[in-house]
Specification:
By secondary structure, the protein is an alpha+beta fold. The protein has helices at 2-39, 54-58, 105-125, 131-162, 169-198, 220-248, 252-265; strands spanning 43-50, 86-89, 96-102, 212-216.
């Protein structure tokens, strides 16, 4: 117990005698790290989700120059590390995620916001079509087909009811046409159910879509904090090593061995 108390006292004395180095050196290194990273510049990525497929969005760059709609000012980019719009399809292929990389947060946000306005204008003018709109058109076609078949079925059923008991060729043809219409309407109902299951959920309008901006790379403050902690730990180890070597130097035998080690590293000849 006495050895432990002495060890703790020695620890406290060592830290107290070297606290200036243990505090100032890590803080200076952390400040230098923060300044270097901050002055090195930052990259930002802006992201936006839109209810258009990549193929529909790509049509914007194919618009005629003399048309009512102008092509976007920003170019398409192959990846997220160069300037330009990057288009990635969603998992179900019904929407797209747009992203852009730039030097300033405001620039990438404003550029992507302007591109969203161009998308909205193109959609309103009919130059591009959202996935939901295409599904809605197909749903309308199937629903109109069901309505038409239903009217024809009602007319044929009324015709058959009026000529009930007849066995002529006209009656047989009418019954056959009625059976075909019933089969066709059943197939339309199946198509309608399948389309409703495939139809993506309608997303927010482009004007209401939120643009998110994230900083690429590591934060200067985080890196500076890691440097402060790491250098502080290293300094603490060095202080204790120095204190231990200083204590061992009080012993003549140990001092002679340390002298031989130092001479060996300095390529000095050992004295007889």
């Amino acid at each position: 117990m006495e050895d432990e108390e002495i060890s703790l006292l020695d620890l406290g004395v060592t830290i107290a005698e070297n606290w200036l180095w243990l505090v100032i050196v890590p803080l200076v290194l952390g400040a230098i790290t923060f300044i270097l990273i901050a002055l090195g510049g930052s990259q930002y990525r802006a992201s936006l989700s839109v209810p258009f497929t990549p193929d529909e969005i790509a049509k914007l760059w194919q618009l005629p120059e003399d048309g009512p709609l102008a092509s976007p000012d920003v170019e398409l980019a192959a990846d997220g590390t160069t300037e330009g719009i990057v288009i990635e399809a969603s998992e179900d292929g019904s929407a797209s995620a747009l992203s852009m990389v730039g030097d300033t947060r405001e620039r990438v946000r404003d550029t992507l916001d302007q591109f969203g306005d161009v998308l909205g204008q193109a959609a309103n003018a009919g130059a591009i079509e959202s996935t939901a709109s295409r599904y809605a058109e197909r749903l309308d076609e199937v629903e109109n087909s069901i309505a038409l078949r239903t009217r024809l079925i009602a007319d044929l059923e009324a015709s058959l009811a009026a000529s009930e008991g007849s066995e002529g060729a006209e009656y047989g043809l009418t019954a056959l046409a009625l059976a075909q219409l019933l089969d066709g309407r059943a197939a339309d109902y199946d198509r309608l159910e399948a389309l409703r299951g495939e139809m993506p959920a309608s997303g927010a309008a482009i004007a209401d879509a939120e643009i998110t901006v994230t900083r690429l790379g590591r934060s200067p403050l985080l890196m500076a904090a890691l440097v402060v902690l790491g250098s502080g730990f290293v300094m603490l180890i060095l202080v204790f090593i120095r204190q231990g070597l200083k204590g061992m130097g009080d012993d003549p035998v140990t001092r002679a061995k340390l002298e031989r080690i130092r001479n060996g590293f300095l390529l000095r000849r050992q004295r007889p």
